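Sequence design from tokenized structure. All designs in this work follow the same two-part layout: the structure record, then the generated sequence. An example of the structure record is given first.
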């Protein structure tokens, strides 16, 4: 069995299929791990979701911020942003939309393998261990699924929006606790050395210290036995300058590339954006 991890697809279904053909991916034998953001901004989010779902147990995903946004749109919590190109999904019959919602809420925020590969969408908050991060991810996933079962998913999704609190404390409770955990796993890029997250700066890190004191989260992550794989930050173009923290968002939706990593060899394959 081969395991492949793909960066942010964001509706680039054609590029995904070309990339998998390039490595001779076989769902009967191989696994495709997706770092989140299956949808949003690209030309065919519906085709991407359909393709991933048809892979069945061969596909392992984590939720990204665009995937959570799709849930909010389908639950009428948020208006669809025209730039996200979600019209084909919104136009689905209600039964198909309900099936899609049910599938998405079952997807976690974090996955691990027995050989210590860890996958999240945006990374792991540097003040958490891998074990703590997994516990917090599971906590939110349980709350998300419970909200769905209790017909309270809309309220749950409404409460997850916001930039505060931006500093973790184990004493956080309720909506604030859930919001921070979701933001750390799906929106994090920069933080300061005190642990405060910044959600506005999206540029590539500079080689020089920033005057605002912001640091890429992975520069504060201690060396660990685990290897972290993430997406979300297209401006990085995959460059973290660390072997144990691997960025895979290489900006396909912005006209760059879609990247696939073979694990554990570390070999990367890519295809150029088609549109």
């Amino acid at each position: 069995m081969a395991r492949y991890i793909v960066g942010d697809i964001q509706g680039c279904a054609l590029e995904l299929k070309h990339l998998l053909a390039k490595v001779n991916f076989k769902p009967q034998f191989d696994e495709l791990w997706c770092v989140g953001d299956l949808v949003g901004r690209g030309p065919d989010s519906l085709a991407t979701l359909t393709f991933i779902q048809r892979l069945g147990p061969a596909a392992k995903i984590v939720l990204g911020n665009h995937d959570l946004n799709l849930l909010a749109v389908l639950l009428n919590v948020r208006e669809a942003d025209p730039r996200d190109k979600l019209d084909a999904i919104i136009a689905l019959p209600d039964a198909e939309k309900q099936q899609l919602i049910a599938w998405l809420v079952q997807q976690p925020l974090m996955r691990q393998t027995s050989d210590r590969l860890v996958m999240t969408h945006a990374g792991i908050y540097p003040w958490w261990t891998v074990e703590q991060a997994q516990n917090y991810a599971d906590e939110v996933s349980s709350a998300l699924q419970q909200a769905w079962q209790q017909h309270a998913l809309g309220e749950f999704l409404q409460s997850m929006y916001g930039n505060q609190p931006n500093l973790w404390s184990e004493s956080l409770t309720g909506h604030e606790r859930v919001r921070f955990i979701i933001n750390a796993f799906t929106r994090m890029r920069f933080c300061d050395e005190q642990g405060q997250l910044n959600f506005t700066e999206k540029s590539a890190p500079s080689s020089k210290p920033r005057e605002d004191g912001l640091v890429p989260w992975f520069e504060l992550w201690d060396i660990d036995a685990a290897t972290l794989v993430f997406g979300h930050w297209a401006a990085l173009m995959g460059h973290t300058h660390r072997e144990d923290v691997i960025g895979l968002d290489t900006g396909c939706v912005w006209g760059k590339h879609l990247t696939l990593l073979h694990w554990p060899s570390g070999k990367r394959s890519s295809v150029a954006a088609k549109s």
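Residues 3-272 form a domain with the Purple Acid Phosphatase; chain A, domain 2 fold (CATH 3.60.21.10). We note this feature because it recurs in several other targets discussed in the main text.
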